[in-house]
Amino acid sequence: MILQENIFTPESLAFLENYINNASPTGFESSGQKMWLEYLTPYIDTYISDNYGSVVGVINKDAPYKVVIEAHADEISWFVQYITEDGLIYVSRNGGSDHTIAPSKRVNIHTENGIVKAVFGWPAIHTRRTGSEPVPSLKNIFLDCGCTSKQEVLDLGIHVGCVATFEDEFMTLQNRYFAGRALDNRMGGFMIAQVARLLKENNIQLPFGLYIVNSVQEEIGLRGAEMIARTIHPNVAIITDVTHDTSTPMIDKIENGDVKCGNGPSLTYGPAVHNNLLKMIIETARKYEIPFQREAASRSTGTDTDAFAYTHGGVPSALISLPLRYMHTTVEMANQSDVANVVRLIYYQLLEMQAGHDFRYIQ
Known about the structure:
Layout: H1 10-21, H2 30-40, E1 46-49, E2 55-59, E3 66-72, E4 77-83, E5 88-94, E6 106-111, E7 114-121, E8 142-144, H3 150-155, E9 163-166, E10 171-173, E11 177-180, H4 183-201, E12 209-215, H5 223-232, E13 236-244, H6 253-256, E14 266-269, H7 275-287, E15 293-296, H8 304-309, E16 317-324, E17 332-335, H9 336-354
Parallel strand pairs: 3-12, 3-13, 13-16, 14-15
Antiparallel strand pairs: 1-2, 2-12, 4-5, 4-9, 5-8, 6-7, 6-9, 7-8, 10-11, 11-17, 14-16
Helix pairs in contact: 1-4, 4-9, 7-9
């Protein structure tokens, strides 16, 4: 059955914007997970969740053969680490947060009393000596929330361990790119949700169980995927995450490969990627004329693919990546055609798997 080309509907785009704008820092993903599950619920039979907040939409739950499509829900952020007597706040990383982009950024500090606004302060250009300007580091970047004492900060509900996220909103550029913070990897959550929606709208009856997984805590070591993989015990896993667009300035293609936004999903070769499953996906891409790119991971992929691949004696796993510009910044950019083609590739791969493939040969 051919896919109806309705990936970007008014409803799906409204969900995407709200989902991207919502904060979901590592370890504190619950609000984003509730939003994602609410959107997904009409398209699934049931759902499961685990103690740390990974959420799984399930279709055909009684089928013995289990196929996972997965993304991760968390985003990078900052922890409040130290509050000075003057009311300034120093931070530590929660995930791979980039200290070099922090100066002058606005942030939301998440407290039990609600959001407290703050900024990353930085000395004015007039006060910095040419040739000896300070370089942003965790030792000198700090938050200023307008308080003049430590007690005033504490009275706002801010304490050591509160998380802070950048305040930047979703937007589109030239009707071609989605842009904003945390496209890594809530764009993945959006894409797998669209796969579920299209299966429902096209009345696809799968002969296997489909587990649509939105994992937590990827940014600090694939922890959510490790836990949920053991819970599901899948037979096959198809992971979607982001990868670097290496066509932008200051990126070495010799070191990082040649991947460009707009040229289609990127398929990874590497030890954790099962060769037969990858071959099936490439055959599907060619059959349905879906453009794709290739890259290689010399050791680990650095994605939840590794967590699924190396659990329960080995789960055949593959990685379909969305090319992304400016990863781990507040202006991450993804081409809309690539987003659509990731959805198409996963969707058609599931159709191919239901059309008569002998699952055993994957293994």
